[in-house]
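A.,

Following up on our hallway conversation. Structure tokens first:
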């Protein structure tokens, strides 16, 4: 079931009426209901277009934070062909909050790095709600180095509340891992602007 933001309430009401009518139509009394459903769906689509054409800055922020917004996995599924995830930091372990790998974007091989928050309780716990540990940052550095070595563009999708603030993460070098990832990212992105030799 979709969650609606406060300013989307008129659309939510119309969608609720559509669902009511559909449930009535399932009872066998479908005469005229299909027409009414089509009218209400068109009205809901128009209301949504009207609302989104004049959003305030705060409403745009709410949309960016929407619980039903797409996540890293959704973008990879739709945009990246033959995605092969790479795991581990070659030092401590795997961090599922950072997903990184290789694939093809519009026919060109690319390295892809991003945070995954998860879509339900189980996957959110597995991905630590998108809060990376040192292993995740080191994995990102490893993939950026691989991209640099093979002169691959890096596609980075950022959607995080921040690094994991736990004591265990700091004991394993959280600050240093973030700093190294940041420096490597700057280096990788400046290299990607250089012409091929």
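Then the amino acids I'd put at each of the 197 positions:
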């Amino acid at each position: 079931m979709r969650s609606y933001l406060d300013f989307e309430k008129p659309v939510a009401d119309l969608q609720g009426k559509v669902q009511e009518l559909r449930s009535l139509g399932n009872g066998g009394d479908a005469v005229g209901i299909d027409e009414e459903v089509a009218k209400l769906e068109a009205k809901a689509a128009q209301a949504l277009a009207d609302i989104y054409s004049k959003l305030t800055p705060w409403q745009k922020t709410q949309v960016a934070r929407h619980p039903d917004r797409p996540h890293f996995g959704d973008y990879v599924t739709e945009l990246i062909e033959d995605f092969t995830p790479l795991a581990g930091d070659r030092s401590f372990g795997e961090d599922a909050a950072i997903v990184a790998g290789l694939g093809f974007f519009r026919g060109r091989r690319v390295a892809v790095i991003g945070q995954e928050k998860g879509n339900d309780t189980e996957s959110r716990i597995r991905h630590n709600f998108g809060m990376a540990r040192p292993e995740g940052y080191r994995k990102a550095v490893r993939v950026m180095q691989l991209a640099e070595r093979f002169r691959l563009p890096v596609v980075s999708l950022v959607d995080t509340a921040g690094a994991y603030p736990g004591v265990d993460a700091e004991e394993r070098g959280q600050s240093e891992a973030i700093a190294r990832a940041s420096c490597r990212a700057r280096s990788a992105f400046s290299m990607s602007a250089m012409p091929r030799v």
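Residues 33-53 form the longest helix (21 residues). Curious whether your intuition agrees with the design.

B.
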